[in-house]
């Protein structure tokens, strides 16, 4: 396209003429004085433009389609060039400042908390949570139907006890196929649906991983007892015969010898738990490989983590020597329980942590996508050897579990006093390696329910403790409503451990979840069967009833869970002891740089007391009760010198201060990772 001269009447704005224009015949306003040499020509052209038309151009405005040389002429004028250069350097400076700021913020920012740190972990015992098909046993669809419960409680992490295919001798902890779902619980499709739905609701699923043993019905065991060359050493076999003594004095956790003679193979196999749970031989490389493949199988399906079962039993000493007796004078034939021996050769053997760290590394391979961190928690009761438990945290250079379960608070009911609770808390805080993350368990499927062992009076204060301590709380299903143990008569016993020794039965803490005061407490509303009896108190202690009551255990649990999540000092601040006596345990939660802090005063004693905290200079003289387990006390303003609490009462005070407690009392304070709050920018930074 080209413009005709003025004749076609086209107007270029205020311009009367296009000085740089060259028409079809080669004519135009810019004379061609070219010499034929390209470089020279250009120079001359622009020179002639300047020479010929300098005055004219100053009267013209830029227009669309103007030739390059004219454009350059304009753009080199100071009024265009200067602002352009200013803009250019401003952009450069801004970009550099932003990059520098970003780098500084990233470098100074403490790590973000991961999903397993920001929410309590809720344990579902799938047999007992919700039965969708009316066979009396809970199932995966039942769990899916109740997911709203976790939204209500503000809980994101759900650990589901085993649902693998199993003959159910130890209710799922005896696995027949690690890649299949037991029909009692549903199908693989049900599992996939449940997982997808959980993820869509922002919930994470933690599975049990049971490496120590399989069921005696597992294909590997059958191949091993028939001496298939590949599987021959998959389990721990030793020479013995049916009538002669066992290979050594080792005993099972469930009682009696941990060796059973197998007629098919003509040897004894080791089982640290039931005889239907033969121990795998982790000295066999194929076994190690199989277990890693299983980890991959579930991670690929999308599970978010594993609770690793009974890990300290994974390896045994290859020499199979007798373990030392606790009482050397006891006749050897009376050695039948795990308490009779020092487990020098059957637990925590060299090589165990290498195995766990290897599994951790496999899991880390799946953790790289943002928000897809795969969590690992180990289960090991090493009661009197806290150092052994702490080893599961790994070292600063090699990661192992995110935390080993902390079972010390399971002993809380032994002696309800503030000092005792402080002692149990301190056992963990004082021994936990620097920079690690704490966790707290007050109940699980192996231990009596805390509301029964400590008493209903204390369930609220225990939940308050659990949700205001630093670290991840674990809640066993039903603890959020204060469920209690059931009474199980001898003829009703289901648990194999209980069949061996009724007092060791774990049935009492496994009764159906109490959802409502409907039939079977809403656990199974199709038929009148439940695999264990429902607790008779279900008419008052159930989710539906407690939801209506602002003062219920459930409502308080929910408020605490929300409080914990929404306040920085509670989930990532300092934890400082301020007081402990026969009744009361009190501590602070504060964060450097933040004025807001919390004081928690918990009465675990048997009577009402008044606590004097006037010696804590950092506390304001007057404190307002933000939460109390006794609704009447909410909102009260108390003097720090006179803080009254009833037996089983817990108080949370929120206060504002410029004086932090931790700098003056470092020996009383703990923090996982130091962080400071910068008010002007509303960010956390490492300090
Ligand atoms: C763990 C489980 C327990 C089970 C045992 C054997 O300790 O918590 O329930 O019986 O391992 O797998
Ligand atoms: Mg083992």
From TrEMBL:
The cross-references to CDD domains, in alphabetical order and at most eight, read: AmyAc_SLC3A1
Q: Which GO terms describe its biological process?
A: amino acid transport; carbohydrate metabolic process
InterPro entries given in the database record = GH, GH13_cat_dom, Glyco_hydro_b, O16G_dom_2
Give the chief site where it resides.
Answer: membrane
Q: Where in the cell is it found?
A: Apical cell membrane
Could you give one GO CC term from the UniProt record?
Answer: apical plasma membrane
From the UniProt entry, list the residue stretches annotated as the region Disordered: 1-51
Give the transmembrane region(s).
86-108
List each copy of the Glycosyl hydrolase family 13 catalytic domain by range: 123-510
Task: Write down the membrane topology.
Answer: Single-pass type II membrane protein
For whether the record's keyword set contains Translocase, the answer is no
**Does the keyword Protease feature in the UniProt annotation?**
no
Supply the name of the protein.
Answer: Amino acid transporter heavy chain SLC3A1
Upper classification of the organism: Eukaryota, Metazoa, Chordata, Craniata, Vertebrata
């Amino acid at each position: 396209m080209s413009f005709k001269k003025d004749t076609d009447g086209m107007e270029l704005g205020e311009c009367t003429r296009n000085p740089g224009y060259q028409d079809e015949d080669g004519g135009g306003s810019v004379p061609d004085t070219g010499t034929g040499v390209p470089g020279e020509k250009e120079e001359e052209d622009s020179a002639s433009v300047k020479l010929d038309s300098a005055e004219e151009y100053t009267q013209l405005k830029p227009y669309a389609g103007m030739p390059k040389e004219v454009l350059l002429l304009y753009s080199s004028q100071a009024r265009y060039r200067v602002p352009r250069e200013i803009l250019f350097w401003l952009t450069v400076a801004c970009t550099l400042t932003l990059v520098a700021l970003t780098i500084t913020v990233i470098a100074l920012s403490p790590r973000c908390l991961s999903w397993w740190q920001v929410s309590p972990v809720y344990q579902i015992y799938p047999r007992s949570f919700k039965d969708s098909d009316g066979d009396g046993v809970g199932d995966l669809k039942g769990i899916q139907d109740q997911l709203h419960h976790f939204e209500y409680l503000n809980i994101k992490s759900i650990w589901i006890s085993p649902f693998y295919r199993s003959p159910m001798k130890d209710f799922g902890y005896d696995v027949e196929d690690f890649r299949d779902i037991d029909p009692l619980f549903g199908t693989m499709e049900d599992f996939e649906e449940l997982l997808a739905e959980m993820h869509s609701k922002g919930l994470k699923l933690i599975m049990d991983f049971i490496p120590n043993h399989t069921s005696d019905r597992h294909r590997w065991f059958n191949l091993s007892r028939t001496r298939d060359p590949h599987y021959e050493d998959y389990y721990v076999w030793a020479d013995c015969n049916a009538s002669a003594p066992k290979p050594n004095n080792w005993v099972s956790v469930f009682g009696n010898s941990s060796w059973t003679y197998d007629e098919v193979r003509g040897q004894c196999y080791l089982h640290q738990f039931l005889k239907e749970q033969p121990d795998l031989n982790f000295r066999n490389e194929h076994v190690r490989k199989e277990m890693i493949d299983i980890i991959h199988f579930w991670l690929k399906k999308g599970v978010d983590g594993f609770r690793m079962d009974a890990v300290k039993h994974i390896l045994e000493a290859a020499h199979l020597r007798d373990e030392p007796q606790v009482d050397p004078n006891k006749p050897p034939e009376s050695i039948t329980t795990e308490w009779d021996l020092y487990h020098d050769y059957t637990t925590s053997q060299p090589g165990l942590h290498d195995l766990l760290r290897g599994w951790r590394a496999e899991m880390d391979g799946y953790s790289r996508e943002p928000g897809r961190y795969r969590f690992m928690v180990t289960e090991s009761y090493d009661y009197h050897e806290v150092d052994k438990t702490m080893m599961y945290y790994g070292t600063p250079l090699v990661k192992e579990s995110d935390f080993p379960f902390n079972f010390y608070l399971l002993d809380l009911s032994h002696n309800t006093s503030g000092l005792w609770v402080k002692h149990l808390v301190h056992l963990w805080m004082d021994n936990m390696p620097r920079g690690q993350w704490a966790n707290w368990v007050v109940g699980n499927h192996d231990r009596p329910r805390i509301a029964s062992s400590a008493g209903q009076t204390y369930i609220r204060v225990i939940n308050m403790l659990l949700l205001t301590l630093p670290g991840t709380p674990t809640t066993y299903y039903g603890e959020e409503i204060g469920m209690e143990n059931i009474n199980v008569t001898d003829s009703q016993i289901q648990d194999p451990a209980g069949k061996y020794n009724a007092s060791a039965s774990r049935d009492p803490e496994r009764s159906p979840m109490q959802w409502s005061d409907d039939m079977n407490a809403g656990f199974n509303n199709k038929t009148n069967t439940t695999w264990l009896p429902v607790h008779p108190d279900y008419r008052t202690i159930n989710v539906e009833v407690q939801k209506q009551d602002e003062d219920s255990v459930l409502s308080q649990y929910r408020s605490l869970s929300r409080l914990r999540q929404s306040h920085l000092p509670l989930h990532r601040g300092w934890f400082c002891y301020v007081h402990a006596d026969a009744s009361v345990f009190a501590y602070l939660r504060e964060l450097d740089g933040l004025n807001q802090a919390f004081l928690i005063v918990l009465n675990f004693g048997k009577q009402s007391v008044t606590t004097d905290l006037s010696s804590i200079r950092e506390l304001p003289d007057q404190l307002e009760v933000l939460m109390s387990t006794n609704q009447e006390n909410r909102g009260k303003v108390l003097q720090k010198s006179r803080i009254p609490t009833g037996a089983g009462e817990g108080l949370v005070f929120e206060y504002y201060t410029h004086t932090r407690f931790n700098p003056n009392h470092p020996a009383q304070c703990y923090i996982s990772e130091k962080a400071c709050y910068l008010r002007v920018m509303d960010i956390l930074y490492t300090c």
